[in-house]
Amino acid sequence: MSGAVKRAAQFGVFNRYEVMKRRVEVAAEVREDLTAVYDEIMWLAKRRGVTPSDARAWYTHIRAVRLRRSVRRFSGKISARAARARSTPLRLEHYKRLQTNLTRLVQRHIAERVRDSREFVRMVLDCERVHIVTFKENYDALRANGNYRNAGIRLLDWRSLPEARRALLWRTLLRGKVANAERFAPRGRKIGRS
Questions:
Q1: Burial class (CB in 10 A: 0-12, 13-18, 19+), 28
Q2: What are 143-153's pLDDT values in tens digits?
């Protein structure tokens, strides 16, 4: 096992191989923005009294608001409960544990005195993938460390839902909120971010 793989295992970096193998296509300006966010996070992380989690929150709670339309992608999976839900609040759930993995990356970069914005960008692009789940399932997944089986969450394929249900979910949860919304748009629907 290489040193990088051992460190990834030690700090629990999720799916490091997958992040490194796949290149998600995003505009150069988005990659530049993410690189700038990484620099800001690492600057914050060096301040007294700022934990790696506090520094990571600069992306997840501040900067991601503007960037998410360019980097967040829907997986095409929805929980069985969310598929049936009518009045239950639904969420786009980061099934690759975005906050946990970015916090660990910041911890590791501080501990090893590493400055690697490319790794940060790859991880953000990999972990900014979401499933549709209920509000309760979102917390169940968090408590189960992302293990959907332990959380009692069963996923369905988007295409298995009736067209009318897909149209409603697309309009309320995907349109304008994920970069790949067009791929899941109802037939004949005019695409636009609103």
A1: exposed
A2: 998 999 999 99
